[in-house]
Design goal:
Keywords: Coiled coil. The protein has two domains: 11-206, no CATH class; 289-408. It has nine helices and two strands. It has helices at residues 11-26, 29-32, 36-52, 65-85, 106-112, 116-123, 178-181, 208-368, 381-394; strands spanning 190-192, 197-199. The protein has a two-stranded antiparallel ribbon. Strand 1 and strand 2 (197-199) form a beta hairpin. The longest helix has 161 residues, at 208-368.
Length: 417
């Protein structure tokens, strides 16, 4: 079985963590919390909500409050290490060292750590923690190589302070700075600001033996505290490893159960999909059969309607043809009868006009006194009668049936059934 992959913070998560921690530290929210869980659980929830819950692929880890607490402690420790490196050395070795802002080259910190100024805004008020083994060659090799407690990311860490305010956590303060390791400096002073008491060398003529004994006591206490912190750290790491193994086993068990449930669910979905496809195919086949039957019935009905319509149309045309023939016969008969009547009427009108004209001419001749030539009513009427006949011939008005057929050439009758 492959070991679980170690958790690793990304730059985006570290940036979000330090920003959120700085905000809560600045507005006093962290100071109101009494336990580490209450302090760091909101920060962990915020980091997870911004990264892991939004993009689980790019940010696969869901951080707990212990992870956040360990990461913040490591950030503080890293900041203090860089701060120790950029601390300016006093020009005179007899001058006491202090943590004044003017004693640090802050711009040099960027060469050691690109995000140093951002961490300075958050941890800027934290003083440099005294460490054992920083004065090489000044402690005569005693406890000079005692390593500092460092932890990997994602592991629980119990630092010297055991909390968040820089105390040792055991009620004992230890200052292992350079001033205490040099026994030749008789005017060094050690001041514990957290516990409020000051140890000073009041008597400049105090014997060197008492100084050495005080130094050895502090070294011994530092060694004891160091070992206790190591033991506590090892125990915490072992407990955390055990918890992580149990969580990993439970997680894998849950994953297998989840995988089995997913497979069962997929098999059921596939079976249901196959059944649904079969039902849909059967329904489609039945629907097509019904459509074909309906199309055949509709085509048969259209054919029968078409035959009926064609038969009715033929019957209608035959009836209309018979009616046209009958109407044309009736119209021809009426036209012939009308022509005969009109010819008779024209002949009568012409005869009456001729008689009326002859009488009129006779009266005119009698009135003018020319009676010689008009006694028989023929001498004067002949020229006028000739003129009237010519006019009748021009207008097509003649006596008899000789022009009946010619006069009917322009007569047209339209018969529409």
């Amino acid at each position: 079985m492959m070991p679980p992959r170690r958790k690793k913070w990304t730059e985006a998560e570290e940036k979000t963590l330090i920003n959120r921690y700085g905000e809560m530290f600045a507005n006093g929210t962290l100071a109101k919390m009494r336990t580490r869980e209450k302090k760091f659980k909101p920060v962990a929830c915020y980091v997870n909500s911004v990264h892991h819950m939004q993009d689980p692929v790019s940010f696969p880890w869901s951080w707990t409050w212990k992870d956040v607490s360990t990461k913040v402690q490591n950030m503080r420790h890293q900041y203090l290490l860089v701060k120790q490196k950029i601390k300016k050395q006093p020009k005179n070795s007899s001058e006491p060292e202090c943590d004044d802002l003017h004693d640090f080259d802050w711009m040099e910190g960027l060469s050691h750590w690109s995000n140093f100024l951002r961490y300075k805004e958050v941890f800027g008020d934290v003083g440099i923690e005294p460490t054992v083994g920083t004065n090489e060659g000044k402690n005569d090799g005693y406890l000079g190589e005692c390593p500092q407690i460092l932890t990997r990311e994602g592991e629980f860490r119990t630092d010297f302070d055991g909390g968040e305010d820089g105390g040792l956590g055991l009620g004992i303060d230890y200052d292992g700075g350079e001033g205490e390791g040099d026994c030749k400096n008789d005017n060094d002073a050690v001041q514990d600001v957290d516990d409020g008491f000051v140890l000073e060398d009041l008597d400049s003529n105090r014997s060197s033996s008492r100084k050495k004994s005080r130094v050895w006591k502090k070294k011994a206490w530092g060694f004891v505290i160091k070992q206790l912190c190591r033991l506590r750290d090892m125990e915490a790491r072992n407990e955390q490893h055990q918890e992580e193994r149990e969580r990993e086993m439970q997680r894998r068990k849950n994953q297998w159960e989840e995988v089995e449930r997913e497979w069962e669910k997929k098999l059921k979905e596939r079976e249901n999909a196959r059944e649904e496809v079969a039902r849909s195919r059967e329904e489609l086949r039945r629907g097509r059969a019904r459509e074909w039957d309906a199309m055949e019935r509709e085509s048969a009905e259209r054919e029968s309607r078409r035959e009926d319509e064609s038969h009715e149309e033929r019957e209608w045309e035959e009836r209309m043809n018979r009616r046209r023939l009958e109407w044309s016969k009736r119209i021809d008969e009426r036209l012939s009868h009308h022509r005969a009547e009109m010819n008779q009427l024209q002949a009568r009108i012409i005869h009456e006009q001729q008689s009326l004209t002859s009488h009129f001419l006779g009266l005119v001749s009698q009135w003018t006194g020319h009676t010689t030539g008009f006694s028989d009513h023929t001498g004067a009427s002949n020229p006028y009668l000739q003129v009237m006949q010519n006019l009748h011939h021009v207008n097509g008005i003649v006596h008899g049936d000789t022009v009946v057929d010619d006069g009917n050439q322009d007569d047209q009758f339209i018969v529409d059934g």
